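G.,

No rush on this.
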Amino acid sequence: MGRSRGGLTTKIHALTNQNGLPIRYELTPGQAHDAPPCEQLLDGLQPGQYVLADKAYDADWIREMIWEQGAIDVIPPKANRKLPAEFDAEIYRERNKIERFFGRLKASFRRIATRYEKTSANFMAMIKLASVRLWCQFYESAA
């Protein structure tokens, strides 16, 4: 967990499916950059799969890692990028499912949104518990 003037902070990095349901997680300190956890999260992509991410993940090494696995990146370029990469804006609109996932995750358990847990192991356990709840709610309402 990272420490700042506001207290303990943690970033949750998640890989979700097309329905916005979680598949994998990584935790980093709040002051850490977003890109390094990509290596673990994006390992094992399927050919033809789309990877939607925000501008924080606009790095050549991330795009190459996605391409090497046969997947397609849909990442908008950063404003300061010298040669802006192309991306499909129509497909990128689906990224709202990822943002809604984080909203549902924090709404499921208040202790996730307010970071009650003091250790990263306990915090990850609460995230996984909330994720199980999201998966159950999705399949319960689909039946």
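When you get to it, here's the other one too:
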Amino acid sequence: MRIAIPVNEKDIHSVVCLSFGRAPYFLVYDTETKKTIFLENIATEIKVGAGIKAAQFLIDNNIKVIIAPGYGENSAKVLLRAGIKVYKNVNACAEDNIKAYEKDELDFLADIHPAIQDNED
């Protein structure tokens, strides 16, 4: 299963990015192979709908779980409709969040903020 975490840098020790839709990168961790890759977020530069575009990008990359601090209602609709599970990150680096997920220590994310008209996250 593939897990995605929005991060600021291409480093497993990077902190989790506060913005889902405008995160520079998504760390992708495969729970079966234990391998990590980084995907450049294609939604960072668009003016409207970054969260929706980022959500669809992750769906297209076969992501089944996302660990993030929050996300917008429009991206939430896309993710939930696709059956993606979204968990609330712990205040730590990406690697620590992966470990917490594997130990079943993360809560489901309920922090959905209203859509922002000019730059949806």
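The first helix runs from residue 50 to 60. The beta strands are 2-7, 25-30, 36-40, 63-68, 71-72, 85-88, 112-113.

Enjoy the weekend,
O.
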